[in-house]
Amino acid sequence: MNNKTTKILQLGRNIFKVRRAKGLSQNQLAEALDISREHLAKIETGKRCISLGLLIDIAEKLNIKVKDFFDF
């Protein structure tokens, strides 16, 4: 696994951890973001890259700073 792939996987895991800590299901967050649950699941498992715009939206919905997702 290369460094880029590792970072994408870690970012997805951090999104997952914050979402769970906030008590939200994938369905709840996906609905709030107007994306499918499947899309969110692929982001959280590192199977899909995330756009900066969507990352900002996720941070806003979870009430955290974008930089906090990069604590790895």
Structural commentary:
By secondary structure, the chain is mostly helical. It has one domain (3-70): lambda repressor-like DNA-binding domains (434 Repressor (Amino-terminal Domain)), CATH 1.10.260. It contains four helices and no strands. α2 packs across α3. The longest helix has 19 residues, at 3-21. The model has no long low-confidence stretch (mean pLDDT 96).
Put simply, the count of helices is 4
Report the β-strand fraction as a percent range: under 5%
Secondary-structure content class: mainly alpha
Q: CATH topology, anyone?
A: 434 Repressor (Amino-terminal Domain)
Overall pLDDT level = 96
Approximate helicity band = 55-70%
Uncertain parts: none
For the largest beta-sheet, the strand count, sense and barrel status come to: none
CATH superfamily: lambda repressor-like DNA-binding domains
Number of domains: 1
Judging by the overall fold, what is the CATH architecture? Orthogonal Bundle
CATH class: Mainly Alpha
For this entry, give a set of tags.
globular, 434 Repressor (Amino-terminal Domain)
SSE layout and pairing:
Elements: H1 3-21, H2 26-33, H3 37-44, H4 52-62
Brief synopsis:
By secondary structure, the chain is mainly α. The protein is built from 4 helices and no strands.
